[in-house]
Structure formats: structure tokens, C-alpha cells
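Let us begin with a simple case.
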Amino acid sequence: MAGNMQRFTVILTIIVLSALPATAAQAGTPVTLPVEVVGENGTTSSVTVEIPTPLARRVRSLWIEIHGLSYAGMVSVEINEGNWVSLNNDTVSVAEPGKSYGGIGGGFPTLKVTLPLQEGAVVGGTNIIRFRFNRTDGLASGFRVLAFNFLTSDSTKVFKPDAFKEEDPNTWTPPFRDSASLLAGRQLWQSATLTASGLEDAPRIRAHCSDCHAYDGRDLKYFGYSNASIVARSRFHGLSTLQGQQIASYIRSLPVPSPGRPWNPPYQPGPGLDAQPVANWAAGAGLSWVLDSDTATLPFVFRPKGDLARQPDIGNAPESAIVAAITPDVFRPDGNLNPREIPISLQLPDWNHWLPRVHPLDAWGPAFENSEFSELYGSTDYASSGGRRAPRTSRQSLRGILASPDLSKLISSGRIIAYFEKWTNARRALLKPYVERAPVEWSPDLANKAYSTQLWQLVKAWEITQEFGLEGRGRELFGSSGESRTWFNAIPAATAPSAVNIPDGPSGMGGSALTNEYFNASWYQLQVLLNSGNHRHRDRSPVDWLYLIGGFQDLYRESRRPEPARLLVTLIKAMQSTDPRIGPEDRAQGWRPDQSVNPTIMVNEAWAPMFEALSREVRRAITESLLSAWLDKNLQYPLGRYFTVGLTDNNYALPANYGDISGPNVWDATPLFTAANVNPEVVTRLQKWSAAYTAVAARFQYSPKSPARSRETGKRF
């Protein structure tokens, strides 16, 4: 993309046939989406549409699905020769669930908004919609209109689906094809001097493109960033248009697939994801599987039988079919619920929100440069490797270890987990002087540096995992009971702001408690998707389930939007995290009913708001099935195996406001289970088992130690 981008304009046209009925418009030539608006302040793209006069008179609003609308005043829209309207939470209505997470300026990377229009704003015949990128905040360099439509007063869409078509990244070609340009692009990617942002007087930074992205740029190819967006971002960081085109040419030439798109959150769960090659997993199931409501997840957890089990009917299953599918088998601790195939209403962060805002080298200087954290990844210098340049490695670096011919043994022995843990501990050691000193004076700048360091590790973990093809090799370590695709670390959970004590409020991510908690929840959710333990949980690793489940309360406190279905998926995975072959005498890895979240969560007063969205019958069926599955697992072992002479357990309790949902005394909730209309036979089983458990505990002189209060942060990760 050459020349001045200040008034970069794209014109797309929809031709509506005037002979059509005035109930829906049909395009002559489909519009290619997205409409990408990237570049300097003031960059504009436009779409031209034609609408019959009778239909134009009925238009009352413009509906837009927009990616990257991250702050008020960033985007303006103009219809024909009307006034430019700046988009913010007052000028548009934001659809749920994005609205509950802050709307414009909140956590969701992609939002659906509706802009009211004055009568007569849309005319019969030709209409021009203009989208303008008003100004950067020092982070953004544009946005994308993923979909749009005019709406009538009853919210009927004017244009039919066949009026639009999706752009295919596989048809893109590099701006330059000659070897000299590709080499120049690669060298620029690895070593060009950059400025921090597109703001005036932005300082130069030490990091290069390859330092914050995958070192070879594969992430831009994989997630389908266009040539125009790469050029615009290059200019944003102080390079020329020509240099941006050379970088885009290099990226386009990489021998990696392009299954993702910038707006589709990595690893977003949804049906059919496991049927794709493991190489496509990171691309996620797409925004189309981000559900409008949390309860829409239920049919995918409790799958109706018969015809309703087929897509797309499952999402429309009546409540009676869902209730019939709620059985103890779903909650069975020895089972293996697949969260990768279960869509949720929480939109996970897009790739832009994986990328660090500041590189650790620019954040901490020599402290990072000379750290074990940096050394374990590989030097920030580059070495020639087979005609390409790669991070300089040593035998001790994670890259050097994974590049060894003994990778299979490294995986099957479990040593790969230890190496990733060492790297995580090194990151913790680097940040400790900054985030754990007493007292820490938190500021947006300190929080940004600490959080960016976590993000840097996450991006590099993705880079390493992709380069060495690790995602499909979990069963070499975990066996057939393990996940078919997995990560070998807990780095996603370690990315949560709370993992380094970043507080809610002005110093938190997004400058608000709500957005800070959104990112906490998102990275914890990603951990559940990528590595929930593979039935090999040990103590509170790789997931501290009590802390993670308690985080649902923290997010609800800010959003006031309960997520019972997503919570249930997490609860089931927590129950299924232990090895079914190991009994309760193994306190680190075996089934310990007193050391995790128990069925009382369904009847505990503190958690009642989380389940208000469920009907009484659905909630009853879930409570009864969860309790039954928990009891069935307990009864699998003779009571004597739960106790060891001379040993007692440290009970691990959540903060008081989370309620008492862990520990051994589930039988204390018997009246609550009865009040919830749980089958009396199940309640009687609970009473009998509890009485026997208590009697054996007395013979062993067993009593749990005083509860240890869980920490307010995720430092365990």
C-alpha cells in the first residue's frame, strides 16, 4: 500500500434491485468483508449501497459488528452527507454479552453495536456509509467492520446474508515477490529500529518486531493479518511504507497455514474444533461460537438424545430435553468432558490482546537482559540457522532442550513439564522485586510492564509450542486418558493480572476493576482449555481449582452477569482432574473429596446469584446429579483408604465471601439438599456415607487442620 494513507479510502458497493419486495434487500455483487480501516489518524473507508425508496423509508438504525473498537471516540460513522457520529456507549447501544463487560472501552475485542438513525438519513437509491479511524491512543492503528446492516423499526435486517462474502486470506499475494525484498523484509522484522507508537515524539525502543511477536513472524501469517494491516502497523512503529511492504512480503512467504483471523480469539471453544487438524486448534472455533447468553451453553454440556443431538438443532433444545440429559454420568470424576467443543458466551482475548504492550527489555532493561527468565527462552540476539535467523539458543535454554533429538523422551518422562515450570519460576523471580515488595505502589505504568511481561511469556510459549509441534503430543506423557491436544504448562493461568497482584481499579488492566477481572477470567478459562490436568493433577497444579472457581464470584461482582453454565464446565473439569487409577491414600494425586469444590456450591447461599438464570427444575437436576456422581466416586473406595495414621490434611478454604464450598463436611448441607428437592434416596445415601466416614475418622483420630485461607492473588501459578 503506497502513498499517503491519511485519506485511504475503500469503496464497496451493494446494488439493490428495485423490483424486489420491500421486506429485504438483495445485493447484485456481494460485498467483501471485513471493511478494514487501518492507518494514520483520519483514515477512512466507505461502502456504497443502493436501497429501494419504500425500504429506505423504514430504516431506523445501522447495526455494526466491529473488531478493535477499544475506546470512546476512536471510530466515527457518517451516512451520506450527514454528521459524523462518534461511537461511544452513549451514542450506540452495545449488545450483550459485550455490554456487561464494559461495552466500548471494556474487555471484549469485538462488539456488536446499533447506531440509531434519524428518519430520512437513508434515502432511496445510492447511500454511502463512511467509517473513520479518528485517532490513536498510542496502541490502536485501526479497526475492522466485520459485518453491517441497516435495521427497520422491528430490527429486521435490510440486506440478506448473500449480500456479503468473506475475504479469503489464502488468495493474498505478497506486495513483492523478488528474493531481495523478502530478505529485506526478514531483516527488518528481526532488527529494524522501532518507535514505541504512532504518537508524536514517541521514543525509540530496544525491542524489534520479532521480540514481541513469534520470532519468525508466523503469528501474523497464522492469524491472517492483511498486507494493509502489516504496512499500517509498520508505519505506526516508525517505518516507511516501503519497509512495511517488505515485511508484509516476508510474512506472506512463510510456509505456515492461515486458519485464523485477527478477530477470532485463539482457542475459542466450539463444536467441530477437535475434528480439524491440531495445527488449526489455535485459530479457535470463531466468533460465531461466542454465544449470546451463558445458558445457551447448557445443551452442549448436557446433550439431548436423538435428533436434537445433531447440529444445529442442539442449541434449540427445549428445557425438558436438557433436564432429561442431566445425569450423574456427565459429572463422573472418571469421565472426560471436552471443554474445547463446548461453546461459551465469554469472548476470549484476540491475538492483539496476547501481544505485550511493552517488551521486558524496554520495561526492565538489564534486569531482564541478564535474567534466567531471558536465558531460558534464548538470547535476544540472533544466530544464523539453516538459511534463516533464529533466537540464539544453548543447551540450557528451553529452545535448545526442545530442539534436541531426545524430544520424545523429554515428553514421555514428564521432564518437559519441569522445564516449563522452571521458566515460569524464572519469570516470577524477575518480577518479584517489583510486584511483591512491601508496600507496592501500583500505577498504570507498573501494571502495564508487569502484565506485558506475562503476555510476552504467553506469546513465546505459543511460538515454541507451534514450532516444535507440541500440542498433539500430550498422550505420549498422559496416556489414553489424557487430552487429544494439550499444552505442557500453566503459563495461560500465570498470565492473569492477579498472578502478579495487579489490583482491580485504576491501575488494573483497562483502568477498571471490570476489565481487570475480565482478563483474569479469560486467562483462567484458557488454562482450562489448554491444560486442565489431563487426569494427572498434583496438589494444586497445573490448576488451583478452588482459586479459579472462586474467581467466578470476582467477575460477577463487577459484571453482575452470572455464568452458571461456564461455571459448571469448570466444576466438572475440576472433579475430573485426578487420576482415576490412584486412590485417596495418595494425598497429592488421588481422589480427595475434602480438598476440592464440593456439591454444596449448588445450595450455598453465597453462590445462589450465580445460578439464578437456571430454572428451578434444571437447577434441581444438576444438584442431584452432581451430588450423586460425587457420592459414587466416594463409595468407590473403602473408607479406610481415606485416612493415614498420624497424618492430617491442611484444608484449603476460599475467602469468606466465596462461601464454604470446600472441605469434608458436605453432610452439614443435608437440609439444603432436601430443600432443593434432591431425590430423598440420594440424600439418605449422603447421610449414611457421611456417618460412616465420620466414624472411621474418629478411629484414626483424624481431624483436618485449621483452614488455610486461599490467597487473594494467583501467585500459585
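The second case is a distinct protein. As before, the sequence precedes its C-alpha cells.
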Amino acid sequence: MSDVAGEASRFTDYSVPDAGIRAIYTQESIWQAWLDVEVALAQAEAELGIVPADAARRITEVARLENLDLDRVVADMRIQGHPLMPLIEELVRVAGDHAGGWVHWGATTQNITQSGNAILIKRAHRIINQLVLDCLGAMADLAERSATMIMPGRTHGQHAVPITFGVKVATWIDDFLRGHDRIRRGVQPCLRVMTAGAVGTYASLGALGPKVQQRVAEKLRLEPMPVPSRALLSPQSAYITDLALLASCAGRIAIEIETGMQTEFGEVSEPVPEGSVGSSTMPHKRNPKLCADVLDLSAQGRGLAPEAMGAIGHPHEADGGATAKLEAIMAAALIAMGDMLMRLKIVLEGLELFPARMKRNLELSGNMSGSEAVMLALGEEIGRDEAHRIVYEIAMQAIKTEEDDFEELLIDDERVAGALSAPQIRELLDPTKHVGRSPEIARQAAWRAREAVAGR
């Protein structure tokens, strides 16, 4: 059977391990989850005296895919055009006349499929959660390793004031910590069981209905829906949106690394295995294949969020099309997230840093990254506004002529020299003296990441 999301074709498909979510969403896995719900339903109903105990035992014994004729199921699906009924009929046949007569008692199709989907989401989320923690652990290592590694800070694509690479990683950590918290909370409303019948009123099960649902939930290690209505699709949509936000954060990391790998920057590199070929015609190429795939998968994840929100707006008590659409979107989102995070983990764990190139790039702006420090020191003597005007004029002169040195122009300017000595100016322009609290920010972020990984 093919998986729900189909087969992708990416740069790193053959070199990156599968995250394991694709296997969760094979047709066989989906069917078995539905059968597991049918078993839990029969057991719960037997405990409450609705279904004969021997019938529930028999249903439990046979409700495994290996006991069913799946060719028959597929053939009947082609005829009936129904996602669940052929599977139920095959379970009835295998269970026998007595037990088979109690299969699917008091439930409707979406009670089984949506509850089964909750099982799949829980399994997939466990993988997603671990991959996020793995990425945070790798980021913590990076932040500590580069806490004092000076590089240009860049705003609007231009040199700003210096930072350390660890500060850049700290922003990644902060994004991922919030993203982890969102998906951890957001998944919970998706992990709920409904067995309240076609319109969510327990009309088929009567007064025992809520107790049946509670016991089914306990058996499946899920929670019961407070309002067990098929109309409620916002929890799944919200979780997909939470995943999309995390995908956006991963995309930002990938584009930063991909940009840093450009020849003109040369500050970082994703791991490039021995024998990896970048181009069929240019043997020298070391292309950011992993980052390219992270960006592709990030875009896929973002694109699924509006579709998921669109599925919420359906009329009346249920819409099978909206439910089916959202289940397909959920599968695609989780598979894409698993693939993306697996690649990002590899990038972060093997990221190469080139501090000498970072320092050389910082020097390209001729110490002008210290203009803020000079302006503030000068402003203490003549006022900030006037200091800004003077330092701006000198900086523009240095940029336009290209031959004039910013430091020397400052030292030679009478307006500046009247307030600051040459040694003071040189110290203010020293990038190592103007990174603020960069090392502390990086190390604090690393500590927070490690706390999250440790579950604290």
C-alpha cells in the first residue's frame, strides 16, 4: 500500500533516515488503528453489560489485519465507496455470526475513524516531540561552542553592531522552545475519543453512552471529548497551525545557514559527507542540500495551515468531506514535519563554524560597526542628536571615498577629538568590546534548551 502523503523526491531522500511517521500513515496502519477502536468499544460495552462478554472476547481475538482478507476489503471498497464499512463487514465475517452481530455497536463511521486518527496523531507526535528536543540539544551545544565567536550582526542585510554566533543560535533556541510548548499543548485536544453516535448525542447508547466513551478512552490511553461532536474540527486545525509555526522557525534557521554557506559569506557549512556531489557539471560545488530540503518542507508545512483552517467551516453536525480532508492534511503535515526535523537535526549536529571568516567579514565594514559606541560616548559630551549627526557625516565620507579610514577620520575630526582621545576611539571601535551581553545571552539560552530536553 502507498502512504497517505505519497513519495517525495528531494536532494537528501536517500541519505537521510526516515523519521518513522510515514509508516504510521500507511493504509494498513490506519486500518489497524480503526480496528483497535472497535476492540476498545466492544470491551467497554461488554463491561457495562451492553455487549455479551464472549462476543467482546472474540472481537478482540480476531481484530488484527493478519486475520482479515484485505483483498476482499479493497474490492468491496471499490464497490461501496465507503472508507470503513468493508473493513467492518470483514471483521463481522471473521468474528462469526454471534460475535459479529455486536461489532460496531452504537457507533458511526467517524466515531471510529476520528478516534483512530487520534491514535495515529499520538504516535506521530511522540516522534515529532523527540526530534524537536534533539534539535534543541544540538542548538544548546552550538550556543555554548560559539558564545564568544564574534561575527557581524546584520540588519536589513547590512552590518550593524557585532554579535557572537551564539546569540544567533539563542534566537533559534527561543523560537524552538516556544514552538515546542505550542505543539505540546496543541496536540492534547486532538488526542480525544468520541463514541457518541452520528450527531454526538449518545442516542444509540442512552444513559450509558458517556461511560462507554470514558472507558474506550481509557483503554486507548486517550481522553474523552467533553462535547463529542463530529462538527468540532478546530483542535486538529490549531495543531496543524502550531506545526506550521514551528516549520516557519525551522525555515528561518535553514535560510540563515544556507546564506552563511554562500561563497561571499563562508561563515558556516552544513555537514557535507565524503563523496557528496554538488553539481553534475561543476565539481567544486558544495551545495546546501539539507537546508534546501528543510526550506522545501517548511514551505509545505506552512501551506497546509490555511487549508486546515478552511476545513473548520462546514455546515450542520458533521461533514464527511471536511473530516476526510482534515485527516489527509494532518497526515501530510506530520510526515512533512518529521522529514524536515530529521534533516534539521543532522544540520545542527554537524554544523561547521568558521570563526576566522566571521572575523574577516566583520572587518569589511572598516570598524564602522563600532559607530554606535562612538556616537554614545560622544553624545555624553555634546548630546546624542549632535553626536549622531557628526558620526553619520564621517561614516558617509568613509563609505563614499573608500580610501579614507573611519577610525582615522574620527581621530582627525576636531569635533570628535575635543571629546574623545585617539586611544578612546580605537577602544570604542574594537568589535570585541562591543558585543554587549552576547556570551551571557547564548549561555542562558543553552541552559534553557537543556532544561527542556531534560523535561524540566
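Residues 109-145 form the longest helix (37 residues). Confidence is low (pLDDT under 50) at residues 1-6, 275-280.
Keep these points in mind for the review questions at the end of the chapter.
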